[in-house]
Amino acid sequence: MKILFIVDFYDDGQLYQEPLLAKKYIDLGHEVFVFTSHNTDVFKYIDEEKIENKQLKIYRGKNGEKIYRFPYRINLLNRIKSFPNLTEHLKSISPDLVFFHDISFNMHEVVNWKKKYKPNLKIIMDYHADYSNSGKNWLSINILHKVIRKGYFHKFLKHIDKIYPIVPEGIRFLKEVYSIPEKNMELLPLGVDLAKINEIKDKTDRKMSRQKFGLSANKIIIATGGKLTEIKRTDIAIRMMEKLPSNFHLVVFGKAFTDEFGAYLQKLTEGKNVSFTGWLNLEETIELLLCSDIAVYPASQSVLWQQSIGCGLPVVAGDSGGQDMEYLNRHNNLVKVNVENINPEYFAKTVWGIINDQERFVLMKEGAKKTVEEFLDYKILALKTIAL
Questions:
Q1: CB–CB of 164/187 below 8 Å?
Q2: Are residues 128 and 63 both part of a single domain?
Q3: Tens digit of each residue's pLDDT (9 = 90 or more) over 329-378
Q4: The pTM is what?
């Protein structure tokens, strides 16, 4: 089967859904093609600066996928975007499945090509928006979503075989804002490459990995990180360390979105058992999580919730509003912290309660393993999307 992704951002070196699904499709024997932009900066994922490259670039990605990087034909305020004429590339590839990542203003080209050349083409779409990350003001919800995107999307809705929101709140958002029937949707959570995690686990030594990251072999290691923005509330994880015994150590991986915010976080660590690794690639992130004991994410939805579960860690995560992660807590492997309890004292108490109760700690780790095997392995997710 030939599978085509159409997505604004694609980075085959990170733990994001699109490259991990692409890898799994290829592992299953399919061909994968990616239509995307020239943007490869994760910190400009939403509000990217103007890309100066005006040429089409075609090359093979790390997993063997064929990547087409287009300049945008239209880019209005980084909210309404479309690639230039895709029809000729659709003709040359002749995909069997087109996978849109969110609503694309190139849908009309794919649908028209389907009707004219390939009526049996399957079209699916995942959806990443919900009330916590979109529709933050009247103009956004009532004009951008309810008028512009909804009006465009409904013209092609009958041609979409399945819509896959990545979180339960996304289902609610599409029902209430876009009037999408629930029967058209199915949850497709962000997942993990279990085979890759097991491969890294088999070839690394936990003690050596800790040495590599400057971590003690005898301390309880708490992992947190990602794109360090203010809404992640990494400061809470750092201040939490004041409340924990000296044998606990927090390792922060990732990069601050500004130098000023990075300096602020560094200042907070003075006198605390906290270290920073900087930005890590896919393999390094997995290796760090595998040599940690527990993961903490004070606020804001993150794919690192799933990656931490995939590495067998108990997870403590804050729901700062509209980001309920209980769907990931299938075997008591995760503790959700409600918004009113997102503070250093509560996180410290929760982490201490897990680590100090060996039976609970072991059961949470076993629960994480079961959750991945049943629900989050990208092999399972990939097979779901092609079994239409």
A1: yes
A2: yes
A3: 999 999 999 999 999 999 999 999 999 999 999 999 999 999 999 999 99
A4: 0.87
Give the total number of structural domains in the chain: 2
254-264: b (≥16 Cβ within 10 Å) or e: bbbbeeeebee
How is residue 374 annotated by DSSP?
A: I
User: What's the mean per-residue pLDDT of the chain?
Assistant: 91
Low-confidence ranges of the chain (pLDDT < 50): none
Which of 188, 211, 246 lies at the terminal end of a domain, its last residue? 188
DSSP for 130-165 reads: -TTTS--SHHIIIIIIIIIIHHHHHTTGGG-SEEEE
Residue 264 CB partners (closer than 8 Å, separation 6+): 235
- Cα–Cα dist 268/238, whole Å: 7
Residue 29's contacts (CB-CB under 8 Å, 6 or more residues apart) are none
295 beta partners: 223, 315
Structural domain range at position 88:
2-188
